[in-house]
Amino acid sequence: MEYSKLYINRIRALCKKRGIAINKLATMSDVKQSTLDNIVRGLTKNPRVKTLHKIALAFNMTLAEFLDFEELNSYSFEDDEEN
């Protein structure tokens, strides 16, 4: 799986679990709607840490908690075709 798809899935799963629409997440996180749309549509492959931090805070999580999930933890960069 493509690296960027991991956090896209993470954002979508957390939104679904908490009943939050992407546009609501944009408001809650103070991330521009267009920026968040570009992330979840896969147009932005490498969002800034600051952006991910804001999204994590909107979910009432630390950045570490937001990034601590099985798919990301087991990701192998050796399989990444972009390197």
Spell out the blueprint of helices and strands.
Blueprint: H1 3-18, H2 22-29, H3 33-40, H4 49-58, H5 63-67, H6 70-73
Tag the structure with descriptive keywords.
single chain, 83 residues, mainly alpha, globular
Number of domains: 1
> What pattern of helices and strands is seen along the backbone?
HHHHHH
Largest sheet: none
How would the global form be characterised? Answer: globular
- Proportion of residues in extended strands: under 5%
Uncertain ranges: none
Description:
The protein has 83 residues and is mostly helical. It has one domain (3-72): lambda repressor-like DNA-binding domains (434 Repressor (Amino-terminal Domain), Orthogonal Bundle). It contains 6 helices and no strands. The protein has helices spanning 3-18, 22-29, 33-40, 49-58, 63-67, 70-73. Helix 2 (22-29) crosses helix 4. The longest helix is centred in the N-terminal third of the chain and has 16 residues, at 3-18. The two termini are 14 Å apart. The relative contact order is 0.17. The model has no long low-confidence stretch (mean pLDDT 94).
Could you give a short description of this structure?
The protein has 83 residues and is mostly helical. The protein contains six helices and no strands.
